[in-house]
Amino acid sequence: MNVSLNPRKTDFRAIAICCGLYFILGFITWANGTLIPFLKLSLDLETDLQAFFVTFSSYIAYFFLALPSSWILKKIGFHNGLVVSLVILGLGALIFIPAADHRNYALFLTAIFVQGTGMALLQTAINPYISIIGPIESAAQRMSIVGFFNKSAGIIAPVLLGTLFLKDAAQVTERLNAAVDAATKESILAELLQRVHAPYISLAVLFVAFAIFLKFVRLP
Q: Are 130 and 98 in contact (CB under 8 A)?
């Protein structure tokens, strides 16, 4: 008996979307690294341990969301999982705004943790998804392609955010050291933290817009 085989075709639109999602994963991961020196300066953190809680807050989210992410994806599916993860990333980005306005260290860590939960869900959904949207024998090639975008974000994020956040850092430090009273110092730090607004509002808009796009686009 002859059996007609219909191998799965590669969906290039889905791969392009996955490239964008992997770029986002890389960007947020490396953005957290840039936040360490920025928050240490702008929040006047006393120890390096406090600064390194920035990355800890992100990675601990993976610990708490590892098993729940699988359960969530079983309930809502891969497609909706991608959408929800982007909305969570957008929410985390928005929390940066009140954190900056109130110079609240705990709120910054909360924002980073929320974004970490979004990344955990996104990564749990997208890693197997990129393997199944085309022939299984070319899965490694697809992983290499999206990995390139992930690593590219790791180059762009520190340069872009470092330029925005740590511009004139030496001069700011000099001004802080020269401040004669607490009010002047608070004013300098508040001005420094305003640099958070534009990039993280832009990221929130981007993530939510991408989520809306994904909600209505047809994916395999």
A: no
Q: Which domains does the chain have, with CATH numbers?
A: 12-166+196-216 (1.20.1250.20)
Residue type, 169: A
Distance CA 145, CA 127 (A): 13
Strand, helix or coil for residue 154: helix
pLDDT tens digits along 78-100: 889 999 999 999 999 999 999 99
Collapsing DSSP to helix, strand or coil, 60 comes out as helix
The Cα–Cα gap between 136 and 52 comes to 40
H or E element, residue 190:
helix 182-193
Residue 57 and residue 203: Cα distance in Å, rounded? 19
Q: Which residue has the tokens 């024998």?
A: 137
The Cα 149–Cα 91 span in angstroms is 23
